[in-house]
C-alpha cells in the first residue's frame, strides 16, 4: 500500500535527485537519464510513495500562469508564436500573460515585475537586456525565444545563418545575380543579425566583393514598401532584394509592382519565415521556412517542465532546422505545395 506520509521531497532526497526529477518520473514526462530514473523508481517502490496529484500541481505552480514577452504584436509571425505557445500552456492547464514592451526604456523593469505574477517567462530575443534576463532567471524559469541569452539562460531558436547562406548562394549561383540588397536591421535582433551574417557568408564563399551595408528598416510590410521606394529609384537598382522576413518582402513586392516592375523578370524578391500568405501571393515568395509554432511550443514545454537540475534537463539550448522554399519570385518554378 502507498505510504501517504512520505513526501516527494523525501523521495528526492533518498534518490539523490531534484523534486522536479521525481515529478517527471512519476508523470512520465520530460527528459530523465536512465540512472536517475532507476534511483527514483527504486525509492518509490521501497517506500510505497503515491503522489498527491492536487498537491503536486499546487507545489509545482504558484500562479498557474506563464509569461510571454514581445516587443510588439504586429504581423503573422507573432500570431504564429502565440498560437504555438498557448497550445502547450492550455495542455498544461496554465494561462498565458503577454507583455509587449514596445522597447521602451523601462522594458527591463516591466519584465521583472511580471515575474511576480507567473511561474516562468519566455522572452523574445533582443527584447530586454542580458542583465534583466539574469535577474529574471534568478526568480523564475526563463527561456529566450528566437535568440540567445547570457550564459545560464537557455534558448530555443531556429537556424538562420546557414539557411540564409543557402538562399543567397542560390541567387548568386543558380541565377547568376550580382547586385543583391539586404533589407533588415541586424542591430538588436538576433535573428536578423544571423541572417545578415549568412548573406555575407555566401558572398565570401564565392570570393565575391563584400555586399553593400544592409538597408536598416523595420520588419513590417510598410517598411518593405519604403525599401522598394529607396532601392528601386536609384541607379543601378539591385537585381535582387533579400529581405530579413516575409512581411518586409511582401512590402517590397507591393512597391515593385506599383512601380510597374515585373517580378521576377525585372527584380527578384525573397523573404524569410514562410508565412502562410507567402504561398498565396503572385508570384509566390521564395523564402526560408522556419517552424514558428514549434519554436514557441518547445519554449513553452521547457518553461513548464523547468527545474534547477541541470544534470538531467537535456541540452541547455535548442536549435530547430529551417528549409529553403523555392517559389517563383526568384525566377524558379515552385517546388513546394502550399
UniProtKB/TrEMBL annotation:
Species this protein is from: Plantactinospora mayteni
Family matches, as Pfam families: LacI, Peripla_BP_3
InterPro entries, per the entry: HTH_LacI (IPR000843), LacI/GalR-like_sensor (IPR046335), Lambda_DNA-bd_dom_sf (IPR010982), Peripla_BP_I (IPR028082)
Domain of life: Bacteria
Protein name: LacI family transcriptional regulator
Every HTH lacI-type domain range: 6-60
Keywords, in A-Z order: DNA-binding, Repressor, Transcription, Transcription regulation
Amino acid at each position: 500500500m502507498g505510504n501517504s506520509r512520505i513526501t516527494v521531497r523525501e523521495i528526492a532526497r533518498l534518490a539523490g535527485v531534484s523534486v522536479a526529477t521525481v515529478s517527471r518520473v512519476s508523470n512520465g514526462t520530460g527528459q530523465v537519464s536512465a540512472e536517475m530514473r532507476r534511483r527514483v523508481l527504486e525509492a518509490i517502490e521501497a517506500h510505497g510513495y503515491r503522489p498527491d496529484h492536487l498537491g503536486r500541481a499546487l507545489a509545482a505552480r504558484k500562479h498557474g500562469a506563464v509569461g510571454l514577452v514581445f516587443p510588439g504584436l504586429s504581423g503573422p509571425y507573432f500570431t504564429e508564436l502565440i498560437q504555438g505557445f498557448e497550445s502547450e500552456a492550455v495542455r498544461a492547464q496554465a494561462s498565458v500573460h503577454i507583455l509587449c514592451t514596445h522597447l521602451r526604456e523601462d522594458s527591463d523593469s516591466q519584465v521583472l515585475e511580471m515575474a511576480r505574477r507567473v511561474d516562468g517567462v519566455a522572452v523574445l530575443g533582443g527584447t530586454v537586456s542580458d542583465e534583466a534576463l539574469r535577474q529574471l532567471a534568478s526568480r523564475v524559469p526563463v527561456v529566450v525565444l528566437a535568440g540567445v541569452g547570457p550564459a545560464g539562460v537557455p534558448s530555443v531558436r531556429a537556424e538562420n545563418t546557414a539557411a540564409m547562406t543557402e538562399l543567397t548562394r542560390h541567387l548568386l549561383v543558380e541565377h547568376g545575380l550580382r547586385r543583391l540588397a539586404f533589407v533588415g536591421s541586424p542591430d538588436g535582433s538576433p535573428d536578423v543579425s544571423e541572417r545578415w551574417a549568412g548573406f555575407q557568408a555566401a558572398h565570401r564563399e564565392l570570393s565575391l566583393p563584400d555586399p553593400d551595408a544592409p538597408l536598416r528598416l523595420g520588419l513590417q510590410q510598410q517598411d518593405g514598401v519604403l525599401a522598394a521606394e529607396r532601392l528601386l529609384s536609384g541607379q543601378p537598382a539591385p537585381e535582387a532584394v533579400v529581405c530579413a522576413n516575409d512581411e518586409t518582402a511582401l512590402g517590397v513586392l507591393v512597391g515593385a509592382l506599383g512601380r510597374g516592375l515585373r517580378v521576377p523578370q525585372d527584380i527578384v524578391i525573397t523573404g524569410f519565415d514562410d508565412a502562410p500568405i507567402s504561398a498565396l501571393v503572385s508570384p509566390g515568395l521564395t523564402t526560408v521556412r522556419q517552424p514558428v509554432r514549434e519554436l514557441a511550443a518547445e519554449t513553452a514545454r521547457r518553461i513548464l517542465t523547468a527545474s534547477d537540475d541541470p544534470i538531467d534537463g537535456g541540452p541547455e539550448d535548442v536549435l530547430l532546422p529551417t528549409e529553403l522554399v523555392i517559389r517563383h519570385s526568384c525566377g524558379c518554378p515552385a517546388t513546394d505545395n502550399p
